[in-house]
Amino acid sequence: MNLTDKLTFKNISWEKFNSNQKFDIVIISEVLEHLVDDFSAVKKIKKYLKSNSYVLASSPSLNSPLYKLNLLQSFDKEVGHLRRYDSDSFSELFRKNNFKIVKMYKVEGILRNFLFTNRIASKLIRYCKWIIADLFSLMDDLLLKVFGESNLILVAHKK
Fold first, then answer.
1. Fold of 22-158
2. Which pLDDT score, from 0 to 100, does residue 20 have?
3. Can you say how many angstroms the Cα of residue 121 is from the centroid of all Cα atoms in its chain?
4. Among 6, 40, 72, 74, which residue carries the largest CB count within 10 Å?
């Protein structure tokens, strides 16, 4: 795709990030739920976007079946989650910062969420390859439709 000269990845502490550079897209994956002031973080993202550009953000869902069953509270505390969002609150966070929501995806079913959040089950992920991984994905996609999402992915456009 010849993206070498067009693509830059930065992994920098959010609070310390400062740049004169503007970006076509900012990806903020599994970050906002850890920040005390998520509103200011989204405002800061906008500052670094060029006009007519996008942000892609992901976060754990408040509607996660395991969360609703009170099975993720210790996990959330351990990994530093200060909050979870539902699709409305996640969208509103960006709308209040004058972004236009392009798309909201509800992803990751209960099986994938269990495999990720359970210490013992998460070790199984390392050994799930090829056809087994495909089978897990198929089952998880079906469970997603029945029980709902564990994660949200939002695409927003800078107005």
1. Rossmann fold (3.40.50)
2. 86
3. 21
4. 72
